[in-house]
Amino acid sequence: MRAHARLAVIVLGLGLGLSCSKPAPVGVAAPDQRPTIELSTAPQPGDSVFYVVKFTWFSYDPDGQVLSFRYAVDPPLAGDTAWVATQDHELTLKFRSAVPGSGTPSGIAGTDYHVFAIEALDDQGLASPAQSVAFTSYTVAPTARLIFPIPNHLTTAATPTSVLLQWAGTDPDGPNKQPVKYKLKIAEQSVEIMRAKRGIGEIRRLCSASPRD
Fold it and tell me: N or C: which end of the chain has fewer CB within 10 A?
């Protein structure tokens, strides 16, 4: 009897030990987290800037790495966005500024409203929440001046029948601060000079002498 009782106690103890054991933990894969992106160089929201605008940004992916970016200019409020892919961390864009500006005395020749948006893409193909900024771009009208003959509103310049006209121009927000072309008018004829060398354009004009009576 004692042997049977001792055996029952041992069996009961084993049963209790088995019933109190915890199941082995099962690993659960954490969902991939989206990357983030922030604009570090960009116009202030609602600001008015030259039409040539530089953007820089930095990104972070908490569980992987950012592989590329995509940006859009003036994305639509509804429908598909035309994204442009890039792996750079900076970008310089020229924005259309075609709405006529106030002109003088501010010198603004054209303006336009724009939105720039950018996203980061990680190694799992997930996109970050888009970062965007809205601003107004503008362009300043170039200026030109005659170098020879020197203009004088009091007198008319006297020249020989063959005269060399010289001029120069500046464009505050243009490439190399120079106009890309000039237009001039001589004796009711319009002449277009596509590009000036070293900021000075010139043209020879053969002026025929007036016939005598």
Answer: C
As a whole number of angstroms, the longest Cα–Cα distance in the chain is 158
The CATH number of whichever domain residue 60 belongs to comes to 2.60.40.10
Instruction: Report the candidate in 213, 187, 183, 189 with the shortest Cα–Cα distance to residue 201.
Output: 183
Domain shared by 200 and 126, yes or no: no
Q: How many helices (H) and strands (E) does the chain have?
A: 1, 14
**Cα 117 to Cα 50: distance, rounded to the nearest angstrom:** 18
Go through 152-177 and write b for each residue having 16 or more CB atoms within 10 A of its CB, e for each that does not.
Answer: eeeeeeeeeeeeebebbbebebbeee
Distances (CA, A) of 165 to 31, 38, 144: 73, 53, 13
When mean pLDDT is compared across 30-44, 107-121, 188-202, the lowest value belongs to 188-202
What is the radius of gyration, based on Cα positions, of the chain? Answer: 37
Domain of 181? Answer: 143-205
Q: Could you tell me if 150 and 157 are in contact, meaning their C-beta atoms sit under 8 angstroms apart?
A: yes
Residues 53 and 100 in one domain: yes
- What amino acid occupies position 180? V
What would the pLDDT profile of 10-42 be if each residue is shown by its tens digit?
444 444 444 455 565 666 667 889 999 999 999
Q: What angle do CA 179, 98, 102 make, to 5 degrees?
A: 85
